[in-house]
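Hi everyone,

Forwarding the result from last night's run.
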Amino acid sequence: MSTSARVTDEVNFWRQRGDLRRAVRAVRIRKPERLRWRMALAAVSESAAPLRGFGRLVVEEPVRELVLDLDDRILRREAVLDARRFGVDLDRGEILPLRTRWDLKRTAYLTGVDHELLARYLQLPHDFNRPIDLAGVVLVSRAISGVHKHRAARLAQRVNPTEHGVARHEQMMLDRADYERDLARRWATLSKTLVQGSR
């Protein structure tokens, strides 16, 4: 591949050929940044997810070392979360802070959301002193926030104000859109608060 090719294109090129070592190498030799490089790294993590045994180790460990060596704390955190979306664990306590179920419950209470809703999508420990799957909680919280934001936008688009204002049912839709936006903000706040202190 040409060195002038985008890192995402180069990674996809090697992935399609089944050569994940070269895909990892393509990511390693490029300068880390928050857009294309991060997407390329996520693509490599996605390729590692279905692998087992030594084949997975050959891809996962170099990527993990690469992530741990990043100077950009936000990029390091987001790379770990991107990998977690595909079931790859790049963090063994070095990057994301340790949070217990009590921390989750307290933070959810302060932000005004029900943390029990998360149990529909991932397993929460019964013992409130045990650590939670923080990456999973953050990803689910972000997804819930996105759903509420999308609902708010759809409701707002259905309202067509006239010179006489809005009809009563349209005002109810606008009120519901405000409620959905508030829920989106609360779930986003939960995810941001939980990852504060990432290393």
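The chain has a mean pLDDT of 91.

Cheers,
N.
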